[in-house]
Here is the input.
Amino acid sequence: MTDRILIAAHNNALWCDAVCRTYRLRTTIDDRAWSVQSRTPPYYPDAVTLSPDLDELELLGRIDGSDGASVKDSWSALDLTGDDFARLVAGQWLWHDGTRHVPAPEPALVWRQAHTHEDMMAWTAAWADEPDAASILHPSLVDEPGVHVLAASATGAPDAPIVAGCIVNVTGDVAGLGNLFSRSGTAGSAWGSAVTAAREVVGGIPIVGWEAGDSIAAAVAAGCEAIGPVTVWVR
Here is the structure.
């Protein structure tokens, strides 16, 4: 279990790193944690723990701990309440090993990759819950090695609106699936379709990610295994 959590957390940390590089933020990664000493973009943590033995003091020494600081506690092993942090999200790491059956998605969606900056801008406009959020993910992310931005429409028409999407980030022999959304239902209902689309891109390597709330059950129904808890802390 611990090894798979480490693999999933490391993949997630590298995705956070890719996003932060588009903001020209200076990041640090070692076998203890990934971290940034300045504030990260909205929805992205200032640190991701990469060891279950990392303690609160060492972690907080790596980041700007002022109001707004956030930490992804990959083993839910920390207690930051004494440092004025609150638990924002309690979720589960997910693992899909490529051999599990993926139920046929309903309704069927037609998936394609976003290759250009213009494609990425259309994707972020569909992903964002509010106009300001559309600028969080920069168009240059499609240029990052290993990053595959996937968009889904109800038909294969070139001008068909995007109704669902996800981002797949390949690091080594694993692929992270995140930023999943659906405009035609809940994000959780799109898990099976997204896993199928991701498999077309990455083949049989493990797919990892994390979810919270009802989306955990949707991911498990799509063939994922919940492998351990993850907590997001915010001050």
